[in-house]
Structures are given as structure tokens and as C-alpha cells.
Design a protein that fits this description.
Elements: H1 2-12, E1 19-24, E2 29-35, E3 42-48, E4 55-59, E5 61-62, E6 68-73, E7 81-88, E8 91-99, E9 110-117, E10 120-126, H2 134-137, E11 140-147, E12 154-158, E13 161-163, E14 166-171, E15 181-190, E16 193-194, E17 201-204, H3 210-237
Antiparallel strand pairs: 1-2, 2-6, 3-4, 3-7, 5-6, 7-8, 9-10, 10-14, 11-12, 11-15, 13-14, 15-16, 15-17
Subcellular location: Membrane
Signal peptide: 1-16
Protein name: Fibronectin type-III domain-containing protein
Length: 238
Amino acid sequence: MPFVLLILGNIATALSGLTLKCTNDYDEFMFCQLEAQNCTEYRMILQNDSWNNKQNRCTFEQCDAGPCCCSIQMTLVGGEIHTATVWKGNKTMGSKIINVIETIKPKTPTIVSVKESNRNFQVKWKTNYVPTELFSNSLNAIVTYHKKGHNEEHSKSFKPSQLDGDYYYEILGGPLEPNTKYEVSVKSVMNNKFSDSSKEGEFTTLAVNKDKTLLDVALIISLSVAAVLISSKQSGRT
């Protein structure tokens, strides 16, 4: 009973007006952000509740945008629970329970190629996990593309398949504007937790073949005229 009360106490412990958010990549890094001023005055101890003698530590630094950040390189195991305790000098500011599975944020994927095939465009990427592992194959994906320099986006959320060790998606060329540059990016998704967007890849749609278009129009007109003539002849015989 005291143990249960201790856990509940940790969950409810306020971080003295501070906000701590932690995610992990389910591989080797735990990332934490702390809403505070004077970042370097704060440090964090991460206690593995399954192994009482196993601790990891980090000191917060100023992030590029806003909150204080720290990252810990560690072995992450599904099902494990950690207690993160924030300190300012020798004073404990509070603690927070971190469940490894519930705080997964997938690694940022990497686009390896965007190639045209029969006027469609095949996007291939790596999840940056071992492609044969169950976790990599359990990830969903969101592919987003737009005309370069334009804000209007088209996105597709789906379960990707593998091709030659990479994951892929085919963007249909039919609805795209001809002779136009497009940019495409990919996110990985796990339990409604989204990775950061990959670096964008680029592709250019093919120009319209005017000669072929004119030939197609001429062929359609010829067939239409022939159909009318045949119909007229058949009507004259009746």
C-alpha cells in the first residue's frame, strides 16, 4: 500500500509550476523539455523503476525555440516505467512518471529517392529503424506533397509496404499539374504520436506532349466523323 501511495504521489507531484514533457524514440534516446527560465540551473535524474539502482542524468540547456531541453542516451525497453525528478541545485522541484510505450515519438524518416515511373512518382524512405523488426513494420506513415512555393498540401495516411528494404508510396501523376516542381515529405506514426517531418524530396512532373495531344484530338474527331457517316448510311438503307 505505501508503494502505491508513493507512485500516485509522484504522478500528482507538481513540478513547482514547471512543465516537463518527455518522449523517446524506442531505440536509444529519451528527450525531455522543461518550461523554465535559466535552463542550466536545472538537472534531471531518470530512475528506472524496474531497476532501482539504474539511473540516468542530464542537465538542461536552452533549446533553439523556447523550452529547456535535455537528452539521455539509454536502452529503452517496452513496458518499463521511469521516474523523472527535476532538481534545481539541491532542491527537488518535483517528479513525473514516464511510461516508455506511451511516450514513443518515432524517429524522423529519411527519403532516399523520388522517381518517375509511367508518369507516376514513387517515393521511397527509411524509418531509421531496422526494417525487419516488428516495431518498424508497425509504423504507419503520412506522405504530404505540394507544389513548390505553394502552401496547399495533399496528404495521405496509410500503412506502408516495403520494397527492396525501403518503404514506399506512389503519387499518381494524373491529378498533378504538368511541367511543375513538387515537394514531398514523410512522417512516421505510432499510436497517434507523430515523428518530425522528413527533409523534403523534390520531383518535377512531365511536360504535356502537344504533338501527341493534337494527334489524340484528331483521332477522336476522325472516329466521331466516321461514326456519324456509318450511322447515316445505315439510316439511309432503312
